[in-house]
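Standup notes
- HV: blocked on the assembly model, inputs below
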Amino acid sequence: MLFTSNDIAALDSRYRAALVNSLSGFKPANLVGTANHSGASNLAIISSVVHLGSHPPLLALIIRPSPVERHTLENILDTGCYTINHVSDQIIEAAHQTAARYPREQSEFAATGLGEYWIDGFAAPFVAEATIRMGMELREHKQLEINGTHFLIGEIVLAEVPGHCLGDDGAVDICAAGTVALSGLDSYYGTRRLRRMAYAKPDLPPTAIS
Amino acid sequence: MLFTSNDIAALDSRYRAALVNSLSGFKPANLVGTANHSGASNLAIISSVVHLGSHPPLLALIIRPSPVERHTLENILDTGCYTINHVSDQIIEAAHQTAARYPREQSEFAATGLGEYWIDGFAAPFVAEATIRMGMELREHKQLEINGTHFLIGEIVLAEVPGHCLGDDGAVDICAAGTVALSGLDSYYGTRRLRRMAYAKPDLPPTAIS
């Protein structure tokens, strides 16, 4: 099935959103935890976290100018910090439910039953049930003119991973940690490792190392 | 295992790259096809494609200022167009091999055995073996001051998906298309759907629809 620009523009908006959200491939499933200056917490599922660099350790994320994610954006801009927590198979339902349009005064932690986990000196809540979680400090914020989305760059200042998932070479077995992947707007996937590939070199054929 | 900023900064650079690349969660595995003005083709695996919006249909990607990805960047800036092709389980080895530092005059298509598929009037090659592929037109390019990476925004002007993977509501079953996910620098994963969730509303409990 081939869609041109004109075909895509002519689609029903829900159909178009489901289609276009499927086209980038599998997406990471993360919960972004924030708090306002009074410490009132907020939690939102975000599928747009992307690696920007390792030294310094930077992750970017895209926030749509939507009512739900706006509370998250406001808190990040107010406090300069946030947490990123992997969604694991144990918490798919609660994680997805954070996308509901709760009123500002209601915390998605309380509404979904996920636990707040605070680390002394860090002004945003982590998700108690998450197996992999990071404390982030905002480094840069741009609003993209092309469609009004917000592009936030943050530095990882804290990272917690289960010891049994951490390889000798630094690679984390996020499948063993229960981390799931997202596709489209609403589909959650478990994974199994097919291949780990050796570093690619022009004069060597591709080689699986495990 | 808890890492602070200081811990991360003190790590061996390869260990740090493996660790930090694992922390964003599962990543999409895509091949980006380009050509220069003479039609010489180039292909690079990119794990940073991210959905930016559906109307207009926009995807962004991050390109590191590395030798391999630079050919891709130069071609995109020269011609204003590129293709994004999902990596499926059938082509993991060839896709990974495109990350090798081939000299500029050697096409990664020829080097890895992947086929070029050209659509009349579109100046970048698609991957013949890919089941889901898109033709992109560059809309915006920013070089990020924080670490020199390039942020490219493109509009989907062509999208091809297998008919049997396209749902009545527009969602694409990318697992059925064979699309794989990436973790870290080099690990490829197959997926299985755990849950598709209904649209989240504050006054309804989370509900799986399939």
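- HV (later): unblocked. Chain B touches chain A through 118 residues (CB under 8 Å). Residues 67-79 of chain B form the longest helix (13 residues).
- Next: hand off to the docking folks.
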